[in-house]
Design brief:
The protein has 191 residues and is of the alpha/beta class. Helices cover 35% and strands 27% of the residues. The protein is built from six helices and seven strands; from the N terminus they run βαβαββαββαβαα.
Length: 191
């Protein structure tokens, strides 16, 4: 029988909480307040891993002795980071770019305890079917795009238009739980 250690989830994402709950992983939440701006010349891999580490460090300072889990997810199309939309027209612009194309979803993961962190990343490829104006309008209107990288949730209305996924589905939802399990195991064996 395995025992999943209680974690401090450094995230306000309801999707990450749902994934943790769905596998029966006990956690408390402490939402970090950090600047999520991209740095000059920073690539997507470095960006998501840096943000995950910074979130873990921000929360870890007030949770000594506990295991802190932080994550950051972004969408990448043609080597360009596509974050969360600023408004509904921006969401539509993002979805138009994704329409008919493959893109990548990258999630940086940081697991931290007692000031020591381990950082990793999961990469998943996703293909949207070509979408017409009515379909794009539908996704913007009912897909709740504003707090999601790439302006879509794979587990909601966007599923109607997903032609393919290569890699970890849970990564696209927002938390590659298998990678989290592996990383927490590594941290626990170091203690």
């Amino acid at each position: 029988m395995i025992k999943l250690p209680k974690l401090v989830l450094a995230s306000g994402s309801p999707r990450r909480s749902e994934i943790m709950n769905s596998v029966g992983w006990e956690f408390t939440k402490d939402v970090p307040d950090i600047d999520e701006s991209e740095r000059e010349g920073e690539n997507a891999e470095t960006y998501v891993q840096r943000l995950a580490r910074e979130k873990a460090e921000a929360v870890g300072a007030s949770h000594p002795g506990e295991i802190v889990l932080a994550a950051d997810t972004t969408v990448v199309l043609d080597d360009r980071i596509i974050g969360k939309p600023t408004d509904l027209p921006d969401a539509r612009r993002m979805l138009e770019m994704l329409s008919g194309n493959w893109h990548e979803v990258l999630t940086g993961i940081a697991v931290m305890t007692n000031g020591t962190s381990t950082v990793g990343m999961q990469r998943t490829r996703v293909k949207f079917a070509p979408m017409n104006d009515a379909e794009l309008d539908f996704l913007v209107a009912v897909g709740d795009p504003l707090d999601k990288a790439g302006a879509y949730a794979v587990q909601a209305q966007a599923a109607l238009f997903i032609e393919g996924i290569e890699g970890d589905y849970w990564n696209v939802v927002g938390l590659p739980i298998s990678l989290v399990y592996e990383m927490v195991g590594r941290v626990m064996h170091r203690e």
